[in-house]
């Protein structure tokens, strides 16, 4: 047993350990269980308490509402009463309004009915008036219709009577008309027979005439030949007439051309005359201008001369004053020169005697001052001299300028006069040429007029000749010799005129 | 008294007035004093004096003295602008007196104006008045003062019948109608023209007292032929006594109670009058006659043989009433003019009417306008017109009849018209030939 004991001892230790472990485990389990039990218990308790709280809440709310209801009952009752009263009043008002509307409706209905009835009455009245009017019109229409009817019937009756009377009249007229017809018929037959007889006689006469005509025709062949010859001669004459007419027309055209030229020349003359007039006007105008300019220049010259004289006088006065000054200055200068000479002498003496330099210096300074005094005086004198010289030079220049101006003016005047003379000469030449031209054109016109007259006379004579009149020709004037080439034309025309005259004479 | 020629502008040396002219002038100037002289004059002289008579002469002098002529013409033209004498039988005197009396009655304020005024005039004008057309009847003025503030009370008053009896009445025609022995036409309208701001509904009603007064008046007037009371709010209650008194009236031919509020009971009394009296023309348009009233009228119509003109326009007769009237027409052979416009009738009436029209040969004018007859009605009428040859006017405007049917109806009417005209022309020709 010791093993067992020994074993037990370790076993017991193991057992103890085990037991300890088991106990620990059991304790843990116990603790867990306890915890679980506690949890459950607590949960149940929670649930119960929650239920209780819910129930209590409900109870509380119920009791609270009861209390509220009890307090608010009265207020609600009062409000309900007020609402009921207001609704009653509104109902009453609405009822009143409805009744009023009903009344108004009824009255409106009444009014509408009255209006409708009065309208209907008016319309019926108007209808009656209209029917009355229509009846009146209808009656008038019917009466007028009846009148027309009666009128038509009367007219018809009248027409019938007239017709019958006309019938009777016609019947009365019928018999004599028939008799008349018969007589006329017989008369016409007689006339017809007479006409037939006349016709036959006429035929016989015609046959006799035809035979005579044939005889005459044979004898007329000779006459035809003569007729043809005369016709040929007539044709030739007609051709000649045509040619001469053409020549005359040509001559007339030439005459027209010459007339146009004369007109143009006349126009040129007029224009030259106008130009000449214009040129004369211009010349007059320019001469006036030049005269004015000369006057102006002369006046200017006089003024300038006066001014120059004034200036000269002033200058002379100034020169005199300057000369006086200069003379004064010169005297001063001479004085100064004398002083300087003295000083030089003194210097020389001092140089010889250098002891008294201060006095020399003083004297030098005094000499310098004197020299200085002299210098400005000399400068002044020099300046004044220069001024005098300048003035004199200016004077001379001015005089030269004046002289040059005068010369220029004179030259200008001469040039202008030359130009004007030249222009005048040109104008005069043109005038002369225009005048000569005009005279030549006039002479040409006269010649042309004379030729025209001669031609017209010849034409008249020709015409008279053609018509068959024989009039003596007037004596033709000899052709005028002229310088122009148109003279040849004249010559041709006159030759033609002479030829025509010869022909006319030959025909006559 | 010397009168210089230069002073007297009327003097003319050429035309010295004749003695008779001077006498006429004298008589004209002093006619009041020399009435007997005027009466002795010849009618020609009387006519020549009339232009000179002064228009301000009192009526009692001129009424029986001056005959109908220029004097009365001048009086009428001086007083009224429009004078249409064709309306008054081409008599100026009649026009003057009728209008004068109408004026007096229209301006008569009961309980204020003296009745003597009218009494004085009546004997003067009774010989010349044949028609009285009164368009206004004034009420006593104190009633106006009363009912201005209480609008609601007034409504109550109108419905209250007891108080209505106490209401003052209009002019009493009793004496007037008894005096006017030649009166043939009597037109009344209980309304007031130009009431301005004083408008009240009671101005436009006939009262019970007026009805009673009128009944007595009608009994007294034996020559009345035409009675017309329009736009006076006559209802059943007021209509009955009026019509009862007219039932035995010897001469009433035409009765016009249009534009009132007559209902079935009133229509029944009208029907009674129809059956008992000798009415030729009955106009009850624009009332509120219902089916039963129409049936009563139809019954009276079927037995009646004098009525030629029946106007039932603008009532509420409806189909049943229309049917009744149509069936009454089958037996009636005198009615020429029947107006059933605006009666809420439909095609049923048209069908029944068309059956009647095929056989009827006296009805000349039929007016079914403003009833919703429709296509069926149109067809029936068109078929009827094929067989009818006397109807010369058939007004089917606003009846919703389609165009083909209306065209056929119009064509048939036109044919009947032409046939009528041809007959007239033939008769005229015959008369001219005989002449």
UniProtKB/TrEMBL annotation, chain A:
Presence of the UniProt keyword Translocase in the record: no
Key words of the record: Cell projection, Cilium, Coiled coil, Cytoplasm, Cytoskeleton, Flagellum
GO biological process: axonemal dynein complex assembly; cilium-dependent cell motility; regulation of cilium movement
GO CC, one annotated term: axonemal dynein complex
Pfam families tied to this protein: NYD-SP28 (PF14772)
Chain ranges of the Dynein regulatory complex protein 1/2 N-terminal domain: 22-123
InterPro entries assigned: DRC1/2_N, DRC1/DRC2
Any coiled-coil regions, as ranges: 16-43, 199-307, 381-458
Ribonucleoprotein listed as a keyword: no
Localization terms from the record: Cytoplasm, Cytoskeleton, Flagellum axoneme; Cytoplasm, Cytoskeleton, Flagellum basal body
PANTHER family recorded: DYNEIN REGULATORY COMPLEX SUBUNIT 2, NYD-SP28 PROTEIN
Protein purpose: Component of the nexin-dynein regulatory complex (N-DRC), a key regulator of ciliary/flagellar motility which maintains the alignment and integrity of the distal axoneme and regulates microtubule sliding in motile axonemes. Plays a critical role in the assembly of N-DRC and also stabilizes the assembly of multiple inner dynein arms and radial spokes. Coassembles with DRC1 to form a central scaffold needed for assembly of the N-DRC and its attachment to the outer doublet microtubules.
Sequence similarity: Belongs to the DRC2 family.
Name of the protein described by the UniProt record: Dynein regulatory complex subunit 2
Lineage: Eukaryota, Metazoa, Chordata, Craniata, Vertebrata
Automatic annotation (TrEMBL), chain B:
Transmembrane regions: none
Coiled coil: none
Lipid biosynthesis in keyword set: no
Compartments reported by the entry: Cytoplasm, Cytoskeleton
Keyword Cytoplasm included in the entry's annotation: yes
One Pfam family recorded for the sequence: LRR_6
Keywords associated with the record: Cytoplasm, Cytoskeleton
PROSITE patterns for this protein: LRR (PS51450)
This protein's GO CC annotations: cytoskeleton
InterPro entries associated with the record: DRC5 (IPR052410), Leu-rich_rpt (IPR001611), LRR_dom_sf (IPR032675)
SUPFAM superfamilies: RNI-like (SSF52047)
Record's protein name: T-complex-associated-testis-expressed 1
Organism: Xiphophorus maculatus
